[in-house]
Structure formats: structure tokens, C-alpha cells
Amino acid sequence: MTRSMTAFARESSTGAFGQLTWELRSVNHRFLEPHLRLPDDLRGLETPVRERLAARLGRGKVDCTLRFAPSADDAGVLKVNRRLLEQLLVAADQIATRLGEPATPHVIDLLRWPGLLEEPAQDTDVIAAAALALLEQALDSLIAAREREGERLRALLLARCEKLAAEVDAVRARMPDVLTAVRARIRERLAEVKAELDPARLEQEMALIAQRLDVDEEMDRLKVHIAEVQKSLAGDVPVGRRLDFLMQELNREANTLSSKSADAETTHAAVEMKVLIEQMREQVQNLE
Prior knowledge:
It is rod-shaped and about 135 Å long. The protein is an alpha+beta fold. It has helices at about 45-55, 80-100, 105-110, 125-190, 200-215, 215-235, 240-260, 265-285; strands at about 5-15, 20-25, 30-35, 60-70, 80, 115-120. The strands form two sheets. A four-stranded mixed β-sheet has the order 1-2-4-3, with helices on one face. The protein has a two-stranded antiparallel ribbon with strand order 5-6. The protein folds into three domains: about 5-75 and about 125-145, Ribosomal Protein S5, domain 2, CATH 3.30.230.10; about 80-120, no CATH class; about 150-285, Butyryl-CoA Dehydrogenase, subunit A, domain 3 (Up-down Bundle).
């Protein structure tokens, strides 16, 4: 299955502890580069999250954001540390007795005492386990999105492979006519200057010119590379790096064909090939 590196996924789940939401966004990159945004209380998830990303994704820059909203029962609820309150009141009475004055501690002053008000403790282990389970669901969605986009790119690449192969076949079919036209032009020029050449020497020169203009090897290599692209797209392994290399090879052969061109139609075909290859190269950059 061909996968793109560009995709987005969001998954949420609700439990007694509250609501968890993962957002995963990936774009193309040479390697796997995760960027994590986790709540402070769940910073301990960084290592297992990275391990899960590495196990399921090959390449791409991946932004991973986890949001946690506590349940309404716990959110904003503060508890009084009764033991500390009793200690503060006893201390106030002792000081008041010592001074001979009544102990009248102000409520606001007591509330400001560090540790008197406590937030309810949360079971972070339960929340962390739920977050990791939800991450797997989010990764399922992200991978499915990458596969859908990858299939779309695969279809575009195969269509361009067919067009590229058609250009190669057209150039190959024209080559005999091109060589014949080149021979005719040379003979015409010789006739214009009334040059006398030994027929054997003339044929030798013609053979050398034909050899310089011969693009059979380039045509063969282009067809081989096209077939390799099609074979790679039919496989089940990540092909982005391999296809990137093949695009370089295709472009090299198209450039050589252009440099050897002896007529306008062959030059035009070489340009069309390079345009198709560049379009393919841009699409390949997004494949895992």
C-alpha cells in the first residue's frame, strides 16, 4: 500500500477522569521527526509515545498534540487540609494565650496558607493508559488517511508513467526517419558546395553521425526505469526514497536525449518527458 506523508487525524475519548483528545498532523520529511505537545501532568508519556510513532510510521514530520479536560466532578474542586487547619488553629490559640489576647484568625489569611487548599489527586496511571490506547486509534486514522492520499498519488504517478512511456515509444519510432533526414541534409549541403567525397569516406562519416545521434540506449534505460517505478508502486513497502532515486535517473536520460536531439520533434518530446518527470518528482516527495 502506497502511503503519503501528508495527513491529519483527531480522536477523542471520555471516561470518569474526563476527556482526552489526540490531534496528529503529518507532512513530508526525509526522516521521522515527531513534535509532541503534552499536558504537564502527562509528560511521562513522551517516551512511549515516541516509541509507538516509530513503530508505525516510516517518515514524516509529525505534530502530536494531547489535550486533557478533567471531568466536571473534579474540575475546580478544592479540598481543605483539615489536619493542617487544626494545627494552624492550635498554633493561633497558643500565640493568643501567650499574648493575652483572643485568637481571631481571619478566614482569608488562613486560605492563603500554603497547602491548606488541595486539588483532588488524579490517578495519572489510568489517564496515561487511556491516552496511549487512544493514541493507537489516532494512529490508525492517520495511517488510513495517509494510505488514501497515497493511493491518489499512486494513480497520478502511474498515469504519468504511461504518458512518459508513450513519449519514449514515439521518439523510438521516429528515429529511422530522423537519421534519414540527417543524411539527406548532409548530402544536400555537399551538393551545394559541389564537394567531392569518396563514397566510402562519406558512408564512414554518415555512420559516425548516426552513432552520435543514436538514442537507443537512452530509450532502453528510460523504459527500464519506468518499469521499475511501476513495479515499486505495486509493492507493499515504503517506496518514497527509491522513487526519488528513480526520478533522478529518468531525468538524467531525458537530458541526454535532449542533448542528442537532431530535430524539433525529438526536442519537444524530451521537454515533455522532463515536465512529466518533474511532476512525478514533486508527487514522490510526499510518499513515505
